[in-house]
Structure formats: C-alpha cells, structure tokens
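Slide 14.
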Amino acid sequence: MQKIILWEKEIEKELRQAEEGQLDDFLDLVRFFQVNDIRCEICESTLDRPELWEWLYSKEPIELNDIKRELARRLEKTRCRAEKEFDELLLTTGKRSAVKVLILSMGRKSVYYISTIPQYYEGLRKYLLMEKKDEFCSDLPECFPNIFFADGIDTTINTLNRKFEEIQEEIVDHLTHINDYHANFYRMLKENRSFQEIAQQFAMDTGIECSPQAGRDKVKILKESQRNEITGEMETVVCELHTKFKIFNTDRNHRDRIYFYPGKPGIRGGRIIVKYIGTHV
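Slide 15: predicted structure.
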C-alpha cells in the first residue's frame, strides 16, 4: 500500500495541550514510522513556526523534557514540503487514490487523523475498504500486524459465495477482531484450552460466530507447513478454526468463512495464520 503521513499543520497547538501519556503514544508512533521507513512529511510553514521550536526546546514542564527532545530530533529528520503541494496532498485524505494519506495529529477529527499505532492501523483498514479485490488481497498483510496470510489467499477469496464488494467490510471486521485477539489466543493456548473452548470464548467476546472444523475429512486442505524458528524443524498446523459471515443470499450451510490457526511461538513470529477466506470447506 502506497501511503504518506502528513504532520498536522497546527501540530504545535495540539502538542502544547496534550498530556504526558498522549505524548508518549504519539512519540511511539513517530518512532514506528521512522524505524519502518514510512514516508512522513511536514509543511514548510509549520516547520518555520518559532512557537513549535520554542515549545520543543523549553524546559517546562520538566517531566516532558525527554519526550520533547526526542520529538525535536525526529522532526528534524522529517521531509519538508512546500505549502501549496502540501495542501493539495492534504485534500486527498480519505479519498480513493494511488497514495493513501494519513494525518499525524493529536486531534481526532476523523479516522484518518492518527496519534497512536492502533489508530494508524485503523486508518489503513479504512482505506482497505475502498480497494478492488486484487489490491485488497495484496495489502492485507500490511493492515493486520498479528496475522500471517498463507500463500493463495487471493485464490480462496475467489470462492466467496457472495460478491466481494458485498462482504468486503465484513471481511475486514472479522480480520480486525482476529488480529486484536492475538494475546487472548496466546494465553488460552498456554492454558491448553481446546480449539472448541477457544472458539466459544472468541465468539462470546466478539459476537462473531466461530468454531473448529466439524468434518475431519476436510481438515487436510486446512493444513499449513511452516518452519519453527525456535526448533528449526518443519511443523504442520491445522487452520481449522473459522469465523462465519452473516447469512445473505445463501443458505446457512454455505456461509463464507475465514479459516485460521491461532498462533504458536516460533512459527511466523507467533502470529495467527489465516489460510483461507472463502466458501465453506
């Protein structure tokens, strides 16, 4: 996904009003962008404002000094763009275009204005909803950091009973809940909970119907071989847990699903493995 992060033009006003915890989260996001080489730009008129630098280099309040110094250092590394070009780019925020724009801001004006890492992913997923099927499939891994998508996901999506455009929002919703449940999956697996128990708890917590595969004869096509990074050995996991989409123009037994494995340390960094998004296996 091609994207660019723009600093809010009035960022110095927002920073002045923010609390320490908000600034910590904001700084984590700025670090995240630079560590991952995500393109960030600031308007030249913003960068030229003395008020911004006065606040960054002031010694009051003292408890914010470390945060402000690091923000200043990272801001100095941010690419500057002429105001006219910046404003033109700003106008494309929230629109379907080749480059997706998100605004680095402490003010939550919309989903595209972000100050935390979770908000960043929320913004990306909003753009994901605008994409055609091929672009959507290629951009999935970037939008769900706790999920590894197995090869062939684009092929499985072609088996959907419903039109892709009808179910696109529901796919993103299910994947968001699966992604965000990562820590709970890990905890329950450590407790040796069965897939049936895990599915029931997930359904209870998210409101999304979930269960393990009932027909054991179909489990074969849900197997995924991966190397365990801890042991160095190849392992086979079964991506049989599945969420079920709502009934729409199809009978109950042919509802589309997402089949996944809840994760294991050493396999794809412990991420959840999504094997299949499509019709009932």
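Speaker note: The longest strand covers residues 272-278.
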